[in-house]
Write a structure and sequence with these properties.
The protein contains 7 helices and 4 strands. With about 160 residues, the chain is α+β, with helices and mostly antiparallel strands. Strands 1-2 form a two-stranded antiparallel sheet. Strands 3-4 form a two-stranded antiparallel ribbon. A hairpin with a 3-residue loop joins strand 3 and strand 4. Helix 2 crosses helix 5, helix 2 packs parallel to helix 6 and helix 3 packs antiparallel against helix 5.
Length: about 160
């Protein structure tokens, strides 16, 4: 059995990280089951961009005070993705989002990046100076966004709930 070291190094409660990964995984399943699927080298992949476009007109960032605060946080402090170069080593760079992307599309890109960082180990690096709770905030806000995005498409919501 492995020691519990990974959970001790995570900058958020273990339960929050597990909830996020489980919800994200279920959301990806629901997207594909609801027809938001695409092929990537012959493998099924969720079409997050298509989903973001489909809900752009109905997404209301002020639907609840909790959502409004989460959207404001994510837009003001967007997650970054891990970059690497032989000269500089590991670093962080902005998540590429098209200038024409709707707010819903931006948020979909951001919650995906949060998942990628958490799953692929980016959340185990030391947090940026002056923001010890950044990872906790990104994951918490992303969960709130997921909760508001889900009911915007009946087919995705139905598949998520099966």
């Amino acid at each position: 059995m492995l020691p519990p070291v990974p959970w001790q190094k995570l900058h958020m409660p273990k339960d929050l990280a597990c909830d996020y990964l489980a919800i994200f995984s279920r959301f990806e399943y629901a997207l594909k089951a609801a027809g938001f699927a695409q092929a990537n080298r012959g493998y099924a992949e969720p079409n997050w961009g298509g989903f973001g476009q489909s809900i752009a007109a109905t997404f209301n960032p002020a639907a609840t005070p909790e959502l409004a605060a989460s959207v404001a946080y994510l837009l003001a402090n967007p997650p970054q993705r891990q970059s690497y170069s032989a000269a500089a080593g590991l670093s962080w760079s902005a998540v590429p989002v098209a200038a024409t992307a709707s707010q819903a599309e931006q948020l979909v890109a951001y919650v995906r990046c949060v998942r990628n960082n958490l799953f692929h180990g980016g959340k185990f690096l030391a947090p940026p100076a002056g923001s010890p709770d950044r990872d906790f905030q990104l994951v918490s806000c992303s969960l709130i966004v997921f909760g508001e995005l889900l009911p915007l498409n009946n087919d995705v919501e139905r598949a998520f709930s099966l």
